[in-house]
Design brief:
five-stranded mixed beta sheet
Amino acid sequence: MSPKRLDHVAPPSVGNEWHVRFGTSDAASDWNDHCEHARTNTRQAFDLMRTNPRPPQDENHYRLRGDLATRELRGKTLERWQIKVSSGGRIWYLPDDDDHTVWVVYASPAHPKPTDT
């Protein structure tokens, strides 16, 4: 999704920070709604994705397992991670070491249905 007039300006990454980009159109269109529901937590998640996309895992930030552990993007199989931003809100992303980019593939204040099983 190319930026256009009136869009938010994404801050550039500096030093060893990772680029954070949308990996799906749905994530791009849902991002602002997600920010409105959990602004501070979403900003903290964004900062973490930029600086340390594979931190020590805890109950709020971890690599997904099973069928959700990886996802294909741009011809690569990448790890899929989740950050719990609110009681239902989640961000899913894929760290891509080759491009030093984090691809956001899900961002919503609604709980992701694939994890309901």
